[in-house]
Amino acid sequence: MKALKIVGIVVLVYVGIIAAFESLIGYFQPTAGSILVITTFEGDGTPHDRVVSRLESDGQLYVAANHWPRAWYNRALENPDVQVTLDGEKGDYRAVPVTGAEHDRVGGENSLGVVFRILTGFPPRYFVRLDPR
After folding, report:
1. Which of 1, 14, 30, 39 could form a disulfide with 83 if both were Cys (CB 3.0 to 4.6 A apart)?
2. Rounded to an integer, what distance in angstroms lies between the CA atom of residue 71 and that of residue 55?
3. Residue-range domain boundaries for the chain
4. pLDDT averaged over the chain?
């Protein structure tokens, strides 16, 4: 019974660390040059801005959903017409979900460290290719 309590406490502490890290990620967000702002839209047209890390692979622009909170990603799947602010310039893009060999290539070229994976609770990682419209 004592071992079960210890395991329970360890799990609760770990979940608390993940929650704290995810809450503070906006404060520690990467700086200009490695980020972009993606604007996704609700079905009624309401815009939502999200700062995300900019990834590149094979001359293409990508962003990744690396965290458990991923409302921006779900909105981009529902309405793939997004806006991207990159280097101070805003443009219209089509968000294309990435799968298969392309997913493996982009993930391999933009891998995450084990510490980051631990701190975020090992969420599944999804990529979106941003094609200019």
Report:
1. 39
2. 19
3. 2-132
4. 85
